[in-house]
Specification:
The chain is mainly α. 54% of the residues lie in helices and 0% in strands. It contains 4 helices and no strands. The protein starts with a helix and ends with a helix. The model has no long low-confidence stretch (mean pLDDT 86).
């Protein structure tokens, strides 16, 4: 069983990375074109999937959305200043 575990981990990692790569839009892929990432994931045993997960796609940090910038007070609001 212990001999099979690295093979199963590598297979699961490759399947996850391959599905993630296929579902990623082309404009979010970094480095090389998407088709080459797919080939690298399929051919590379551990290196391809790990490279995709680290450097292949733009990752967005959760909870880090840009805050909408709006007027802070009435003196910064152009509509309010027009009405004066």
């Amino acid at each position: 069983m212990l001999r099979v575990l690295p093979v199963l981990i590598g297979l699961a990692l490759a399947v996850y990375a391959l599905v993630d790569c296929i579902q990623t839009p082309e404009e979010e892929v970094r480095g090389i074109p998407k088709i080459f990432w797919i080939v690298l994931i399929v051919i590379g045993t551990f290196v391809g999937p790990i490279a995709w997960l680290i450097a292949g796609k733009e990752r967005k940090l959760p909870g880090r959305r840009p805050r909408p910038r709006g007027p802070l007070g009435p003196d910064d609001d152009p509509d309010f200043l027009r009405g004066i």
